[in-house]
Request: fold
Amino acid sequence: MTYYAGIELGGTKLVAIRANGRTITDRVTIPTTDPGETLGRAVDVLRGWHDAQPFAAIGIGSFGPVRIDPAAPDYGSILSTPKAGWAGTDLLAPFKRFEVPLALDTDVNAAALAEAAMGAGRGCDTLVYLTIGTGIGGGLVAAGKAVRGMLHPELGHMTFRRAAGDGFAGVCPFHGDCMEGLVSGPALKARFGMDGASVPPDDTRWDIVASDLAQLLANLMLAVSPRRIVVGGGVGLGQRQMVRRAAAMVPDLLSGYLPDIDSAAMETLIVPPDLGEDAGPLGSILLAEAAVRNG
Ligand code: ADP
Ligand code: ZN
Reply:
């Protein structure tokens, strides 16, 4: 078996794992502080692993927006993040010293790859991975590959038709009432005046949230035609009933236009993650594997 190193860089923590094949053998969690300290500690962890048993490649799944196109001059850089100190950070430079192939994608694309390969989307060639938490991130696997292009999918920042009569302005610092501005944890807090976790699942205040999320799900069905949409994150997992309600609204929103989409289909299409917290790190291992395979 070959060893690989995988890193998931999130807004609050960095998770580094070592895997023998696809089996996780080691895991270290480091709080995300400033770039120098955070990446420096990750390098130290990997150095210890590499000295004991060399790994063949490193995969990194990062919060975005991040330049993942190897042909770009700023390949590996974090772009316009509101996260203090991180804009312009080169994520790859600190890891070049290991002299092994490096692969980089978004944290959610990595998670989508892992859920499609070995999680809730096993056997699905086309899949969306949504995390609804502090923000909303969306990863996309199409025809078995993570989608990347000029940049990468940013599904949380799309805007949709608002629920009738809803005057909530939304909290996204860029767009106000994009999906993240309406349905993320901080958006719920602003809308309800309290943490979403304190609002009972059967409270009618969830109706409007479900209606907003349904817009995203319906449009993903139209744009991507996924075989599964995996919904995780603090809100996604903590408010399964709201997510199920949103899924149930999709057939009506589509007005029968997509013939396969009825409420039974939506029940099996929208699923929780199977890999939990491991989805991102394991996805990074898949990126590392692919980097070796593709040279
Ligand atoms: P992150 O997105 O930072 O990785 P999480 O996915 O855990 O972290 O999401 C954290 C967000 O989810 C917080 O805004 C929190 O208020 C919200 N949250 C956590 N649990 C629940 C719940 N049961 N219901 C609604 N919102 C929740
Ligand atoms: Zn936005």
The mean pLDDT is 96. The chain has two domains: 3-107+277-293, 120-273. The two ends are 18 Å apart (CA to CA).
